[in-house]
Design a protein that fits this description.
homodimer; 10 strands; 247 residues; putative 2-phosphosulfolactate phosphatase; four-stranded mixed beta sheet
């Protein structure tokens, strides 16, 4: 009986954060923050590392991207509002980073939402920062189960607005690991329910989302479908010494 | 054909705001903001007005509640963290305001979440501020259809966190009026889907919510069930000259 009570009480706590603007409501200390930006930063990060990139340096401004790119001889890449930023070499599409191109290289990346949230989580004192999207769903879940720490699932949204693709990924994580965590927040309940409702019809459903409509006009439908494909780039991007590396 | 195009283009825009912290992402000008705080401020407001209160003065601090209560000879009422505030006369339960008590009186009310969001919307320049909850669902929908302006459905949440009961009410409004508005936001899509999924099993579902667990320990289960009852206090609380009156 005592053992059961202890086991229940000792579960780490998991919360889902639906927008970067809500991050400061939560305590990040002693907590793993999972940065989620399904369309497309965290899908691109998983893919580039899976395809052999040495490291990815996430930066929160174009100026830093250019200067750190020069210092590290890295590839500068970034996107604002779904388009490649003038002055940078590449964009934010996972398809731009096949093994034949990215293996052994450093990527310096800035994006509208995901890299911004990552820096917010670091500044808030997160003990570990990792990135997640459907292409590396299993690696994220395995890490969270192994570490057994508190977790914040951080949805990057779009310019601080709620979005559903990040929420669906949070729901996918919750549905896999919930037995091992103490979860009592409506955000997580909603994310899990939305995922349960749409997991078997994900591709038709994502066509209803605002981000799909924003990006499809750039001919990015294939990209977006890839970003919802489970475990196709199943590595764990872990932030360490200023860069995301395979954890 | 021209008429059809014009009719489509001229639809006003509706967004759902999932937390007071997200309000400043949206433009409130020329917009009706619906303040939603199902558990319990906006359920209490509808009920007190339905039962004959002359006006309700929403204030954002206990000090203002006491001083305005003295000036107006009004009843001072308020809640913080689900409990009556020491120094005020009444709490935030709709059951405290039957016709036999409240008719012809002024209520000065301060609450944790709803009255705070109402003042934020006023400060952000909303053209109209109304309050909504399940007890006055039809009155809210009728007003929004009649006015034909842009709409923000503002969920009060709990201390800036997302909550599901306010989201479900937003979904109920959307499901009734969506044909008449241009709606392209993931928050609204999610709210509508969550409502569709739970509208026929609302009372069992609300027992899963964090706010239920927070308030049930004060013996408020009946209150919470009442707050989810459709059209039992079907008036429109409209903010005018510093007070909510029947619109």
């Amino acid at each position: 009986m005592c053992f059961i009570i202890f086991a229940v009480m000792s579960k780490p706590v998991l919360h889902t954060v639906l927008s970067p603007k809500l991050l400061d409501i939560y305590d990040c200390t002693d907590t793993i923050v999972v940065i989620i930006d399904v369309f497309r930063a965290t899908s691109t990060i998983a893919t580039a590392l899976y395809n052999g990139a040495t490291r990815i340096i996430p930066v929160d401004s174009v100026e830093k991207c250019i200067s750190i790119g020069a210092q590290t001889k890295g590839i500068t890449a970034g996107e604002r509002d779904g388009k490649v930023i003038p002055g940078l070499q590449y964009g934010n599409s996972p398809a731009e980073y096949p093994e034949s191109f990215i293996k052994g290289k450093t990527l310096v990346l800035t994006t509208t939402n995901g890299t911004k949230l990552l820096h917010m989580a670091l500044n808030a004192g997160a003990s570990d920062v990792i990135t997640g999207s459907f292409p590396n769903l299993s690696a994220v879940c395995d890490f969270l189960l192994k570490e057994n720490k508190h977790v914040l699932l951080g949805c990057s949204g779009w310019k601080d607005k709620f979005n559903l693709e990040d929420t669906l990924f949070a729901g996918a994580v919750i549905s896999r690991i919930k037995e091992h965590f103490s979860i009592h927040c409506d955000s997580s309940l909603m994310a899990e329910e939305m995922y349960a409702q749409h997991k078997d019809n994900m591709l038709p459903f994502i066509r209803k989302l605002t981000h799909w409509h924003r990006l499809e006009k750039f001919g990015l439908e294939k990209d977006l479908e890839y970003c919802c494909s489970v475990d196709v780039a199943n590595v764990l991007p872990l932030y360490k010494n200023g860069a995301l590396i395979v954890g």
